[in-house]
Amino acid sequence: MKVPVQITYRDVDQSDALDERIRFKVQKLEETFDRMTSCHVIVERPHASHAQGNRYAVHFGINVPGKEIMVKRDSADHAHEDVYIALKNSYQAARRQLKEYVDRMRAH
């Protein structure tokens, strides 16, 4: 992986296993578009009411030439009580947006 990755945890304990999984996901994004210049991933547990539970949110900020692709994926269901599911869902959204960006570039 040649893309610099910054990982930020907010109200979540840092985890080597999660860091490794995030870096793997960024590497997969790089396979989609090898001209990424950097990627910032934020893992947070927004403050929520007791009724909503402790859900995770994972955000990707992907820098490509001339643009920053921002992906913010929050979930109202209980699936995001697992940080790895929140990461998977956010990664899938980031990959879709990156692929759309690549397709638009190739069309011009």
UniProtKB/TrEMBL annotation:
InterPro entries: RHF-like, RHF/RaiA. CDD domains: RaiA. Pfam families: Ribosomal_S30AE (PF02482). It comes from the Bacteria. Gene3D superfamilies: Ribosome hibernation promotion factor-like (3.30.160.100). This is RNA polymerase subunit sigma-54. It comes from Thalassospira xianhensis MCCC 1A02616. The lineage of its organism: Bacteria, Pseudomonadati, Pseudomonadota, Alphaproteobacteria, Rhodospirillales.
